[in-house]
Design a protein that fits this description.
The chain is of the alpha+beta class and about 400 residues long. The protein is built from 11 helices and 20 strands.
Length: about 400
Amino acid sequence: MQPMGNVSDTHVVVVGGGGTGAAILYDLVQRGFKATLFERGELTCGSTGRHHGLLHSGARYVVKDRAVGRECMNEVRILKRIAPEAIEANRGVFVAFTEEEEAYRETFEEACAEADIPTQWLNADELLAMEPRLNPTLRGGVMVPDGTLDAYRLPMHFFAGARQLGAVIRNFARVESFVFEGRRIAGVTVRDLRTGTDETVACDLVINATGGWAGKLAAMADIDLPITPAPGTMLAHQGRLVNNIIERLRPASDGDILVPQRGLSIIGSTQWQSDDPDDCTVPDKDVDFLTRAAIDMVPDFKDTKYHKAWAAVRPLAGASSTEEEGRELSRDFDVRNHGTLDGVEGMLSLTGGKATTLRIMGEKTVDVVCGMFDVEVPCRTADEPLPNYRQFFRHGVLV
């Protein structure tokens, strides 16, 4: 793609109103681009609004992937600084309930040290004094700087900042098709789902930030995007049983995270694969499994009242044909330039990542955009505090 001159004359359309789309949009307008975001539903209505709210220090993945662990830890430090109102600064404890889990401690702590993730070993008495509802059969645990984030408020901080800088944000606006000039995307056709009317919006670049739906959007441009939509079930009961995130001291697996989220206790999650990211029907067996997993960690869970079970789609970067292959995919993210890789100019797709890494995902994506348009404007999102998420609603209704 050729340089476009003044960056403010370059119009970028972002598709997807979740956390990643919010961070990309904010970074774009902060660097001077003209930007519009389209979301087919309400903002954060997809996977962003459905996860359990764990602010990952990276410890969960660090044994398998030091780079992802280090990146998550760095982003935790940044998010606590730029968006503190969206984060509860509690901690995470990887608890050993079995001899095998206790033996995993050395491997786990060594990996954390290599990724600059601070740890502290707590013996059983110390843990029970801190979290008396834990299963008393525990052997100890490793404390890490995990936390709880608000899945809605965090992206709304970014949306508030984007609107203040002139971004256009349109919800209930579904991208129906792309407008092509040869093999270059030159615009999008958008349907306003409230009025049923269509319009064409010209642009210089489209960024596909639709998460688990990224493959569907890419297919509209005849692009086969390597992505694995991997739904997972979460279960919430009423009552805050712990104040720290409780995790099993073992390689990441199903049903090994208990997250305190306001007045709820959320156990997660499971993982399966789906050809349709809109099909997130919770399997009955998942509820039974997660209930037992929670009781294993906190026996009082059995005495609390069921609140809700739901599923969210992980947008894993890379293709897989089986659930086992999907579990082996990295939790890292990938920015794909379809012009260089697929012969379709004017479109990028972002896949993978975690809620914790939304800011760096935005930064790396906009770095690619700057490179495409020969623009040298540094990212400032790690340095400047975000406006209060409430500011978003003080600028009038969405257009």
